[in-house]
Design a protein that fits this description.
The protein is mainly α. It is 43% helix and 9% strand. The chain has one domain (2-122, 166-205). The chain binds iron/sulfur cluster. Iron/sulfur cluster is lined by residues 49, 52, 54, 96, 98-99, 107, 109, 113-114, 117.
């Protein structure tokens, strides 16, 4: 798997392979629902990331950190040293620190983004009876007569397909590293330590003859 190439064989690498598999199936489930329902976000919309900071699992933070380490190692060092903080937007909204208004999908780690970002707006929750419940994002443009909310068996007649349930994929993620299953934190709290871990592991597995950027920051020497 190319995306994991810089990582040497390790428990973390195995966990990220399992994570990528869950993400691939979640993406496929969302794609199938989008195709069947015809629903779509407004073109170029990134509003949800401007007023939202995802809570994620540590293994998801590791996957995000891997993206940052692979794509811009100098920037990864800077982020690990300085930390990340929420972005401020108009109206006092606090948004994700990885939001990038100038990129096509408005996300600085799009390929490695967390589960909630992959499924948000195109997935259902379970109500207290265990039925799937789904409502349209208020920003989605649909026909005026379109019913915007549904539960259980009515979902197929309203939206032409049943949306995937995010919790079903979320419980699979929890199973990847059950020892820390209870830990969900805002993304900016986990990314710094995750970057440090990834830099260490990538450094361990790097080829000293390679031509890539240095894997360790310069160390001051006493003279
Ligand atoms: S990780 Fe990316 S998709 Fe998720 S909230 Fe942040 S900017 Fe948005």
């Amino acid at each position: 798997m190319d995306m994991l190439d810089p990582l040497p064989p390790s428990v973390l690498r195995d966990r990220l392979i399992a994570l990528a598999d869950v993400y691939a199936r979640a993406d496929a489930a969302v794609d199938a629902f989008v195709a069947a329902s015809g629903l779509a976000c407004p073109f170029g919309c990134g509003t949800c990331c401007e007023a939202f900071i995802p809570d994620i699992l540590p293994v998801e933070a590791d996957f995000v950190a891997l993206h940052l380490v692979r794509h811009d190692r100098d920037d990864a060092y800077r982020l690990a040293a300085r930390g990340l903080s929420a972005q401020s937007h108009d109206g006092g909204r606090l948004g994700c620190p990885l939001y990038r208004a100038d990129t096509p999908y408005h996300c600085g780690v799009y390929e490695n983004r967390p589960l909630i970002c992959r499924m948000f707006a195109f997935s259902a929750v379970r109500d207290k009876h265990g039925h799937s419940a789904f409502s349209l994002c208020k920003l989605m443009h649909v026909q005026p007569q379109q019913i915007r909310i549904g539960v259980g068996s009515e979902l197929v007649s309203i939206f032409r397909a049943e949306p995937p349930v995010m919790a079903d994929f979320g419980s699979e993620l929890v199973g990847i590293d059950p020892a820390v299953a209870g830990i969900r934190r805002p993304i900016h709290e986990l990314i710094g330590p995750a970057i440090m871990k990834l830099l260490f592991l990538v450094g361990m597995g790097s080829n000293p003859e390679g031509n890539g950027p240095p894997v360790s920051p310069p160390v001051p020497r006493a003279s």
